Amino acid sequence: MSASWKQLFFQILLLLVSCRHINTKTPGPTPPPLIPIDQLPTDVRSVVLKGESHTEKVELLNPVNLALECTWTGNQDKLPNITGLWRKNGEEVQNSSQTVLLENDQYNLKRVFSIVNEENLGSYTCEFGSKAKIDFVLAAPQIGEVRDKPIVSYVGDSVVITCKMEDTKPQPSTWNWYRANGTDKEQISTAQEPLRYEIKSEERNTKLVVHSLVEADGGLYYCGAVYAISTSMSHVKLKVINFHEPLKPFIAIVIEVIVLVAIILLYEKSQSKKNSAAGENGTTDQTNTLTQGESNGPEESSSMRQRKV
Amino acid sequence: MTKLRPKARSQGDGAEGPDGGWGWVLVGALFVSTSLVFGLMRSLGIFFVEFVQYFEESAQAISWISSTGLAAQQFFSPLGAALCNAYDTRWIVMTGGCLAGLGLILASQATCLVHLYLTMGVISGLGWGLVFTPMVATVMANFTRRRTLALGLAFSSIGLSSFAFNPLFQLLVEMYTWRGALLILGGLSFNILPCGALIRPQRRSKAPAKVVSESRVSCGSFLQRASSYLELPLLFERPYITYTLAISLLNVGYFVPYFHLVAHSRQVGFSEYQAAFVMSAAGATDILGRIASGWFSDLGHFRLIHLLSMWTTLAGLFIMLLPVSSLSGSYAALMVISLLYGFCSGALTSLVFAVVPMIVGVERMMGALGLLQLIESGAGLLGAPLSGLLKDITGNYTASFMVAGGFVVLGTLTMVTLPHYFSHKDPPSPQRRSPDDTEEGSPAELEQIHSLPSHTNDLTGEVTNKRLPEDTFS
């Protein structure tokens, strides 16, 4: 009995040891449940090429068995057979090179790909010899509105960063936010720092609120729209500046204003002194007397005016 | 004694200004301060996008900020005018500049929307009110023959500064966010201070009234003084009331194209870019119209009031033609009418203020302008919601434009009822009456009593107004 208990104990220990590494943070959604390949839905994309090349964008949400069909109407040579092959991201797919026969004045290439996760996405190309090719760009819906200018905010203030998926595109199942850490992306978890980060996600848009900014908070932030097949990213740059930044032009302007006012007032004082000095010689201009009159006070000036008449 | 009086400075009827020299410096000061008041107000739209995002409020709530600012500027205009009548204009304008800047600086620290209403709206609006009317009145007092040209040149700053401020504010917001940008704007607003400093201390024709009541400091005398500074007696004079009513009616319709032209163009089917271009083109001819009309009016071929009526009639006509021109779907027709409308609306703005001293006299001009601003502001507040309501009811902008144009033409018709409208020469400007005068008798009669002696006064020295208060007390 004890031997079997010991065995159990060791098995459990072994299990625990091997399970220790499970808690790593991976940038990306939890891997989709592994559906056996033959149970995936099937989809077909076909393109008829008349010229030399064509690019087709394919938007995918869920894992799928995607059949890609290429049809080429051929060129003036109209060779009876031609070498066709498939490439993924430029590299030849193994065992895909085949001889394509001219049927009904067309060359046909067809292949089924299992698109299960992010690694399966990319650019799939069918090539006819080296004469014609069709590119299929497989991707999850991309976030269209990317803000190219950085968001600026102040130290101590809070900032709202938003990401939006257009109405024309399918909505993601959830949103994630990441922060650039060197070359890596680190997911932002509100549970870890609830006072600093707040994520408010609705179906098509998401907001990341960062409170109590410090200068170190500046940098690239990524929002990820999570689909079953992969996560589309968009990035926004955050710049955190000190309040001293706008203060510098402000103080410059204030100094300029003070200088101007001083110049104007001093110039006027010197003018009136000049005039009053000239006035004592009896060659007064009307304005001089008036200036003097005004400096004596309003009441006297008006009475002076009366008396002059 | 008489030889020492330069002709230009004769105060025979108080309407002759020196026309040149320092006057042009003041025109420059008015140019700068007007651009910092109205040009700034027009370009605040750039901030509204930021406010909507930061405070998470609706666009309508945010738009109340500029409405409050404009309303405060117009509401406090009589206060500014009265203060200038009581104290030195220079310090009032400088205080106004300080308040305007202070409001914007405090706004940069706002944490909720109400803060913005109070700072950008009320405080800055108060500052603007203390700046605009006094500066306009000062410039007008310094010119006679070139008055309209001076005003036209100065008011062209509104259009020009809108062109310059929009990209500048955009840049400031991108570099420093709205907080930093508002702080810098506050600093820029302080540039009103040197403009105010350029105003030379002037003779205080209101001062005698102050001398009188200084002996009894009581509530009654204070009210009397306040009403004389505010020029409240003007509200009982028919020419002034007629004119104010005419300008208020004009105001109801005048702004409607600025609010709705872009939306109307989009609705008719033109692209965003085309609609915006129509607006910019109208703005450009507006600037042109102000300067051209100012220059032309001062040539003296026609009476100012007749020119004003012509421009307002044309402007009303073109407003009414706007929806008609776009009915045909022709972009060229819409553009032409908009250009013509822009020119006429700019042309009439130069004249609106210049006519006031013709009606009330240069001495009461300050208070008159203040009251005019206050009364016309109420009408302006009516115009935009009314046109919006019409659009909501009828579904397009045709009715709004028609009604707006109608109001403008109605304003012209009201102007026609001004006394001496159909005479070829301007009636002599009324003298300032002492507060002890009775209010009976039409102003026209009193004008005639005053006009004869004052016209012979040209060179014979300053004050021969028999009606100055000193006379009754000396």
UniProtKB/TrEMBL annotation, chain A:
Q: Which residues cross the membrane?
A: 249-267
Name the Gene Ontology biological process terms: cell-cell adhesion
Its keywords, alphabetically, are:
Disulfide bond, Glycoprotein, Immunoglobulin domain, Membrane, Signal, Transmembrane, Transmembrane helix
GO cellular component entries: cell-cell junction; plasma membrane
Which SMART domains does this one have? IG
- GO molecular-function annotation terms? cell adhesion molecule binding
Q: Which SUPFAM superfamilies match?
A: Immunoglobulin (SSF48726)
Domain Ig-like, residue spans: 32-126, 141-234
A Pfam family of the record is Ig_3
* Positions of the UniProt region annotated as Disordered: 273-309
* Name of the protein in its database record: Ig-like domain-containing protein
Q: Which organism is it from?
A: Eleginops maclovinus
Q: What is the lineage of its organism?
A: Eukaryota, Metazoa, Chordata, Craniata, Vertebrata
UniProtKB/TrEMBL annotation, chain B:
Q: PANTHER family, from UniProt?
A: MONOCARBOXYLATE TRANSPORTER, MONOCARBOXYLATE TRANSPORTER 13
Composition bias type Basic and acidic residues, residue spans? 464-474
| Chain segments annotated as transmembrane | 21-41, 61-84, 91-110, 116-137, 149-169, 181-199, 240-261, 273-292, 304-325, 331-356, 368-387, 399-422
What are the Polar residues biased-composition ranges? 451-463
Mind listing the GO molecular function terms for this protein? monocarboxylic acid transmembrane transporter activity; symporter activity
Please give the SUPFAM superfamilies that the UniProt record associates with this protein: MFS general substrate transporter
Q: Which Gene3D superfamilies match?
A: MFS general substrate transporter like domains (1.20.1250.20)
Subcellular localization, as worded in the UniProt entry? Cell membrane; Golgi apparatus membrane
Enumerate the InterPro entries for this protein: MFS, MFS_dom, MFS_MCT_13, MFS_trans_sf, Proton-linked_MCT
Family assignment from sequence similarity: Belongs to the major facilitator superfamily. Monocarboxylate porter (TC 2.A.1.13) family.
- Tagged with keyword Glycosyltransferase: no
Question: How does the entry describe its membrane topology?
Answer: Multi-pass membrane protein
Keyword Membrane in record: yes
Q: Give the protein's recorded name.
A: Monocarboxylate transporter 13
Q: Which residues form the Major facilitator superfamily (MFS) profile domain?
A: 23-423
For this UniProt record, give its keywords in alphabetical order, as a comma-separated list.
Cell membrane, Golgi apparatus, Membrane, Symport, Transmembrane, Transmembrane helix, Transport
Question: Sorted alphabetically, which Pfam families does this protein's record hold?
Answer: MFS_1
Renumbered to this chain, region (Disordered) spans: 424-474
CDD domains noted in UniProt:
MFS_MCT11_13
What's this chain's function? Answer: Proton-linked monocarboxylate transporter. May catalyze the transport of monocarboxylates across the plasma membrane.
Which top-level group of life is the source organism from?
Eukaryota
**Which terms in the GO cellular component ontology are assigned?**
Golgi membrane; plasma membrane
